[in-house]
């Protein structure tokens, strides 16, 4: 795999950096550019962040790899990767679920009416989506979902519950997996629906989690949708869910923040002493730093395999699973390493007197576990690798 950037790709990345330099002068830049915000920095969950996304759309940065017939530019996925890496470095909203998950799935499987309705809105950054997958009894084992969609005239009535639905508190549309054939094998009786978040009978309840991350549970009480809400074919939803999750892992899990965090970790430890001696002279610390540096390089190569597969038109399911399980765990390892060597001051929160690096490492300690869950838990990723790549049987 040759991952040297072409002159055009280098020029594109420079153009993105120039755009972001301009945006950094915006009066609201402190809101839509925040590298310390972690998981929330990916979301267009405020008026300022949504306005930023619309400005990205006007620059032609959304849907670049889409077919021209649907408003895209038909350029390789490497450009979306380069865009997201630059956005992630700034802590700005990424191109997100609309372009990477929902848009590409609609292009592959949606009706012509659905394409006409949603694809222009996605390209113009005029709407936001929430993904309705997990349920109280169907998280890692997503195919066990119980949300029912029963035929009602020419439409459907949905009853049940979803949980851990990030974006449900501000999104306009809900991409929902529901069981449409309770008698079929659990992977075969699932369909996907796309419905407005303000549909009668839909109730959103907020859930606060670690690191000040906000997610939601959503209740369906006789929620009726028309026939146009069905995505693709009836009972083919498991295929669409898997594809959308694969696109999500590629879109959301950039590597630059990990590289940036490692450099920040080294900076936090420089100049610190133990028993009167610099930590940099401690053989145990030096070995640990060397091991982390090697693992950072491994993460870079795993991410580049994802990009290589996506750039060739594939759905990088196995590559994305490998990268996600490795890189999200490495985020935790780097954070733990820093806190172990900072001592008590490393545990001080943001704003506390004497906190190292503004208290960001305590914040990272809270937020890094979230990445091992979103987009499919580490256990799910290991199952994907075991089954699809290694050919191991189900337990």
Folded structure, characterized:
The structure is a single chain. The protein has three domains: 7-94, Orthogonal Bundle (Butyryl-Coa Dehydrogenase, subunit A, domain 1); 130-238, Butyryl-CoA Dehydrogenase, subunit A, domain 2 (Beta Barrel); 253-389, Butyryl-CoA Dehydrogenase, subunit A, domain 3 (Up-down Bundle). 46% of the residues lie in helices and 14% in strands. It contains twelve helices and ten strands. The protein has helices at 7-23, 29-32, 47-58, 78-90, 96-109, 112-123, 237-252, 256-269, 283-311, 317-342, 360-371, 378-389, and strands at residues 129-132, 148-152, 155-163, 173-179, 190-196, 202-208, 214-225, 230-231, 273-274, 277-278. The strands form three sheets. The protein has a four-stranded mixed β-sheet with strand order 1-4-5-8. A hairpin with a 2-residue loop joins strand 2 and strand 3. Helix 8 runs parallel beside helix 10 (317-342) and helix 9 runs antiparallel to helix 10 (317-342).
Describe this structure in a few short sentences.
It contains twelve helices and ten strands. The chain is an alpha+beta fold and 395 residues long.
Order of helices and strands: HHHHHHEEEEEEEEHHEEHHHH
Strand content: 5-15%
Helix run count: 12
How far do the termini sit from each other? Answer: 34 Å
Overall number of structural domains: 3
Percent of residues in helical segments?
40-55%
> CATH homologous superfamily of the largest domain, by name?
Butyryl-CoA Dehydrogenase, subunit A, domain 3
Number of strands: 10
């Amino acid at each position: 795999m040759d991952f040297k950037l072409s002159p055009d790709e280098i020029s594109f990345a420079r153009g993105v950096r120039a755009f972001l330099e301009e945006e950094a002068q915006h009066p609201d830049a402190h809101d839509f550019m925040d590298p310390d915000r972690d998981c929330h920095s990916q979301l267009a969950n405020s008026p300022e962040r949504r306005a930023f996304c619309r400005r990205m759309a006007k620059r032609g940065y959304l849907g670049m790899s889409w077919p021209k017939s649907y408003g895209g530019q038909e350029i390789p996925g490497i450009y979306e990767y380069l865009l997201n890496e630059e956005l992630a470095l700034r802590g700005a909203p990424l191109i997100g679920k609309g372009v990477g998950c929902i848009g590409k799935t609609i292009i592959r499987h949606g009706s012509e009416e659905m394409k006409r309705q949603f694809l222009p809105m996605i390209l113009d950054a005029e709407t936001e989506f929430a993904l309705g997958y997990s349920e109280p009894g169907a998280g890692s084992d997503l195919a066990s979902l119980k949300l029912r969609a029963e035929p009602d005239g020419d439409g459907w009535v949905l009853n049940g519950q979803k949980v851990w639905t990030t974006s449900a508190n501000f999104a306009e549309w809900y991409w929902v997996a529901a069981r449409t054939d309770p008698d079929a094998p659990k992977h075969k009786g699932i369909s996907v629906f796309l419905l407005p978040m303000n549909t009668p009978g839909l109730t959103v309840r907020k859930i606060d989690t670690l690191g000040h991350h906000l997610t939601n549970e959503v209740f369906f009480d006789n929620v009726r949708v028309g026939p146009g809400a069905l995505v693709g074919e009836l009972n083919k939803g498991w295929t669409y869910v898997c594809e959308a999750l694969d696109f999500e892992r590629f879109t959301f899990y950039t590597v630059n923040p990990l590289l940036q965090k490692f450099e920040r970790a080294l900076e936090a430890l420089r100049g610190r002493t133990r028993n009167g001696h610099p930590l940099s002279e401690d053989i145990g610390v030096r070995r640990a730093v060397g091991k982390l540096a090697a693992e950072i390089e491994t993460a870079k190569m795993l991410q580049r395999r994802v990009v290589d597969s996506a750039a060739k038109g594939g759905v990088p399911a196995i590559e994305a699973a490998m990268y996600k399980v490795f890189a999200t765990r490495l985020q935790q390892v780097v954070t733990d390493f820093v806190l172990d060597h900072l001592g008590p001051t490393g545990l001080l929160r943001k704003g506390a007197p004497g906190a190292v690096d503004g208290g960001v490492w305590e914040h990272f300690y809270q937020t890094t576990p979230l990445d091992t869950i979103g987009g499919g838990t580490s256990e799910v990723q290991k199952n994907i690798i075991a089954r699809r790549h290694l050919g191991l049987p189900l337990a």
